[in-house]
Amino acid sequence: MKNSIVAFFILISMGVIAQTSDSEKPKQYIPLQGYAGASMNITGLINNLGVSAAIDPIGADVLLGKYYVTDKWMFRAGLGINSLNYKGNSTDSIGSTQVNMDSTYSQTALYISPGVEYHFLDDKRLDPYVGGALSMGFISKPKYRTTISIIDTTGEDKTEIDYQSEGGFVFGATAIVGFNYYIARNFALGAEYHLGFYNRREGGDWERVTVNTPVSGNSTSNRTFGADRSSVTTVGLSQRLNITLSYFFNIKG
Length: 253
Description:
By secondary structure, the protein is mainly beta. It has one helix spanning 2-21, and strands at residues 35-43, 50-52, 54-55, 61-68, 73-94, 97-119, 126-139, 143-152, 155-165, 168-184, 187-213, 220-237, 242-250. Helices cover 8% and strands 68% of the residues.
């Protein structure tokens, strides 16, 4: 957070200096109606500067696109996907017995965040704005699978455990305050801050199926059911000041 504040004041200083020393002929630096573009976040400072995906109000990485509906009103939309697939295995020996454990986990989340911005200052380069956005996240069912294999001189004893529960949903509504400073035509540095709330709900009914195949004898299956739900609501200021890099182009020619 401290680094973000420092970067914020650096950007303001750059803007003031550039605006004071600008002696060029009048030029349209700020995009107008019919222009579209994208924004990314700047990370790091000075020696380790980099760019990354934009961060939506609920903290998800998204591709953030923008479109000027009029000279003052802009539509913005973020789209992000987060897919996690984990595989792990381990092997241990106890005397002449070998124990193998394999486990997998998978879950996918899709995030969308439509919103609007109002750009209220008629300036050559400085472009402050206010706006709002809705954020929605759709979280798939998590799937776990664990296989435990115990092998000794008599053969193999195998246990397979499959676990699945309900997914989740995230919803947020956020007020946005920010500005862009156009260092070149249609190319801007900026900063953005969020104030709002979000609610995250996950879980529900779950099912666990355990199948045991002993060295000798028939396989046995055990199925258990239950419910496990969680809900978290957060209200307040974002803990992150987003430093942005944006570029626009005329899609109407």
